[in-house]
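Encode chain A's predicted structure.
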Amino acid sequence: MHLLENYTEFYDVVQKLKCYFYVDKFSKWLNEMYLLKDVALPRFMNFNETSELHVFVDACKGAYSACVFVRSKVEGESKVRLIRAKNRVAPLKSLSILRLELMACCVGARLVNSVIKAIDASSIKVTLWSDSTVALWWIKEYGDWSVLLPKRES
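Encoded structure for chain A:
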């Protein structure tokens, strides 16, 4: 029994040493993270005359989101790259899924406008994709976004 007690103590010491080892490693890694602030990883995005922007929007009870992809034909092959994405948590006040889908369309429209400005390509073809046919119909038929945009007072 005495041997087993020593083993248990030894095991506890080893576990503590392992823990200290990993904590020390993590602390060193954390202290070096500031070095990464100047690191930039460029992404290849080939914009040419065949380029198109595709905006995907979606919503659920808890959140809504949008993302913008560029699709280009390069040497006969289609290349698709994610450019930007944005998501938002749904407001605490309960809203219908349709309303959240329309809010996602709003975010998608703002997102694609910022991308178009950034790449300076006002004549590029843009396609909005949504699984909400009601939202797409509402945008196509009425196009009155004033109910979704906040009122601005001067």
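The longest strand covers residues 77-89.
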